[in-house]
Amino acid sequence: MTDAPPLAVAHVADAARHYPGETLTLFTRVDALAPLPGGFKLQVSLPASLAVGATRASASHGESLADLLVVSGDRYISWQVSRPVAAGEQFEYAAEATIGMTDQDRQLESTAVASSPAAAGAPARVQETAEIQVGAQGRYVRHLPAIYQSDELMGRLLMLFESFWGPIEQQIRGMHYYFDPKLTPPEALPWLAQWVDVVLDERLSLAQQRHLLSTAAAHYRKRGSRQGLIEILEIYTGVTPIIIEHTARNFRLGSTALLGPNVALGTSNQPHAFTVVLRLPPPASESAGRELERRLSAIIEAEKPAHTVYTLRIETAA
């Protein structure tokens, strides 16, 4: 078995499909999985049909600029990090290029190779390839009569409109993701919450907000029940509460005491009453504890049946 390489590389294009004349951006990320005493070198190959444009690197790379290398007719953009690199460091790079004209559909490939001189043994080397589809004509021209499909000027003209409307079409194709609480962008969560009449608490984490929305419809069927209260408190606190229902009145021994379904032993029993017990970590301050109790009381008030009363008991978890 061979040891895992001390670095990893990821290499992608900004879009899987482009057309002649468009600007393509290649993104590359290098992760140091282990210390690299001699730094590393990154080379990104460029197909011959791409005209090199601007390049940039993240602040972790430093001030040095990229070099354009030509080896046996092949072109590369090269970055060099000469300083020692600590494990966990991350470097990001971007290279822009303009796609040249072509009379037929083509598939271009760009390979990113990251290498590091080894302190002992063979040098480390990892690579990843990005594929880019280049269309000679836009998709829109296929909807015209055959006589226009062979017209190069018409194909170029329609590619302009396709570049304008393409991003909008992509949003429309992914519209269903906006209605999924688990996938919608964070800024769309309040809008989605209005659909199910949920007011999101900004103090909840993003994961809690998504979980609350994804279970809202099912929760409405349980609202006012013991299980419904347990589930909503669990979402807000991350702890499963204990709910003790008091179903009968207090019972005291005496000459007039009668046993029956409407009596119970104890001194705090009354019909339509319950106690909520939550074992939570100690609050950061006394005011934070009072605020937490106020929030939990508001949740219970909103979720319990209107004719019931309750007692909230917060215990400190060990």
Write structural notes for this entry.
A hairpin with a 7-residue loop joins β9 and β10. The chain has 7 helices and 15 strands. It folds into 3 domains: 7-136, Immunoglobulin-like (Sandwich); 137-173, no CATH class; 215-251 and 263-316. The model has no long low-confidence stretch (mean pLDDT 84). α5 runs antiparallel to α6 (226-237) and α6 (226-237) packs antiparallel against α7 (286-303). 25% of the residues lie in helices and 33% in strands. The chain has 318 residues and is α+β, with helices and mostly antiparallel strands.
Q: Can you identify the CATH class of the largest domain?
A: Mainly Beta
The best one-word shape is: elongated
Q: Assembly type of the shown chains?
A: single chain
> What is the strand tally?
15
The poorly predicted ranges are none
CATH topology heading of the largest domain? Immunoglobulin-like
Mean pLDDT: 84
Spell out the key features of this protein:
3 domains, elongated, Immunoglobulin-like, 318 residues, 7 helices, alpha+beta
Note the topology.
Blueprint: E1 7-13, E2 17-18, E3 23-32, E4 40-46, E5 50-57, E6 67-71, E7 74-81, E8 90-99, E9 106-116, E10 124-134, H1 146-149, H2 152-173, H3 189-195, H4 206-214, H5 216-222, H6 226-237, E11 242-246, E12 249-251, E13 263-265, E14 273-280, H7 286-303, E15 309-316
Parallel strand pairs: 2-10, 12-13, 14-15
Antiparallel strand pairs: 1-3, 3-8, 4-7, 4-9, 5-8, 6-7, 9-10, 11-14
Helix pairs in contact: 5-6, 6-7
